[in-house]
TrEMBL record:
Organism lineage: Bacteria, Bacillati, Actinomycetota, Actinomycetes, Micrococcales
Entry's family note: Belongs to the binding-protein-dependent transport system permease family. CysTW subfamily.
TM spans (from-to): 24-50, 74-103, 115-137, 174-197, 218-240, 286-311
Main localization category: membrane
Source organism per UniProt: Brevibacterium samyangense
PROSITE patterns named in the record: ABC_TM1 (PS50928)
NCBIfam families per UniProt: phosphate_pstC (TIGR02138)
Protein name: Phosphate transport system permease protein
Pfam families per record: BPD_transp_1 (PF00528)
Keywords, comma-separated and alphabetical: Cell membrane, Membrane, Phosphate transport, Transmembrane, Transmembrane helix, Transport
Membrane topology: Multi-pass membrane protein
InterPro entries assigned: MetI-like (IPR000515), MetI-like_sf (IPR035906), Phosphate_PstC (IPR011864), Phosphate_Transport_Permease (IPR051124)
Length: 318
């Protein structure tokens, strides 16, 4: 019986991928851009740490040489003032930003929606100095409002008057600065949230309406859940802008010590403290200002890390 031997042929080698010049250039450029950003960030951090060495040495050897008898006593009120102003601005701006974004994407007539969007975006193009001047002009008119809050809600520490029973007669308080910050971060949050709402699948919106949902129910069930991660990102970016805003806040705030009241002058921020004192600073004082800049750098970095975590968690839930 004749047997035939089967000859196994080796599998053909997979074709080598074709490397296009454009893809290689683009990949290299993006990698270089990412490395450059990390290098700049590391360079800024190393510069701040190196320039803060004098403060660290003084804190260990002679704390009385620093402002307020020690670095912690100096920087802690500034951190509190920075967080208070940014938090108030975020609380005030976020509802308006969400409302404006929903109105321009789902409520306004089609021919008026782009115009309203452009007007909101123009707020981001106004210089900080103009906002500061507007805040100074606004502060005087807020004095009666602050006095009314102190008279009828003074039992709340946030609206308590000073020891003489008065509020800031100039109106240049942390609350005024927070209102101006809210206007400044409003276009940032609104623009990002508007773009997120526009990305909602049209089929989901039409399906909700076809099932008998009202327009608000459609927004609540289809639009808001889809854009949850984008909304969180926009809010955190607005918070980062509020934390680092300098000129407008420095122009509005009047110097003063840390206070729990929002209607009494005080509660400086880190950025405004640096802007007001850096030009004439030298020696240890200069190192001290750079060191509080390092503190603001760390706070901003932590905020961005928290934003990434919130967005990632929201995306998983979605």
């Amino acid at each position: 019986m004749a047997t035939s031997t089967e000859v196994e042929t080796p599998p053909a080698a997979p074709p080598k991928p074709v490397v296009r010049v454009g893809d290689a250039v683009f990949s290299t450029a993006t990698l270089a851009a990412g490395i450059l950003i990390l290098a700049i960030l590391a360079g800024v951090a190393l510069f701040l740490i190196a320039q803060s060495g004098g403060v660290i040495e003084a804190q260990l050897n002679d704390p009385e040489a620093l402002s307020s008898g020690g670095f912690l006593q100096y920087v802690w009120p500034l951190v509190i003032g920075t967080l208070i102003s940014a938090a108030i601005a975020l609380v005030v701006a976020t509802p308006f930003a969400l409302g404006i974004a929903l109105f321009t994407t789902h409520m306004a007539p089609r021919r008026w929606a782009p115009v309203l969007g452009y007007v909101i975006d123009l707020l981001a193009a106004i210089p900080s100095v103009v906002y500061g001047l507007w805040g100074i002009a606004l502060s005087g008119g807020l004095v009666p409002v602050y006095q009314w809050l102190a008279d009828y809600a003074g039992w709340i520490p946030l609206f308590a008057p000073d020891a003489q029973g008065y509020v800031s007669q100039s109106g240049r308080t942390i609350l005024t600065a927070s209102f101006v910050l809210a206007i400044m971060i409003l276009p940032i949050i609104t623009s990002l949230v508007r773009e997120v709402f526009l990305q909602t699948p049209r089929l989901q919106e039409e399906a909700a309406l076809a099932l008998g949902a009202t327009r608000w129910e459609m927004i609540r069930m289809a639009v808001l859940p889809f854009g949850a991660s984008g909304i969180a990102s926009a809010i955190m970016l607005g918070l980062g802008r509020a934390l680092g805003e300098t000129m407008a806040v420095a122009m509005i705030l009047a110097p003063g010590a840390l206070t729990a009241s929002l209607v009494v002058s005080g509660n400086q921020t880190i950025a405004s403290e640096i802007a007001q004192n850096f030009p004439e600073a030298a020696g240890l004082r200069l190192s001290e200002l750079i060191s509080i800049g390092l503190v603001l750098f760390v706070i901003t970095l932590l905020v961005n890390m928290a934003a990434r975590a919130i967005v990632a968690k929201t995306s998983v839930k979605g």
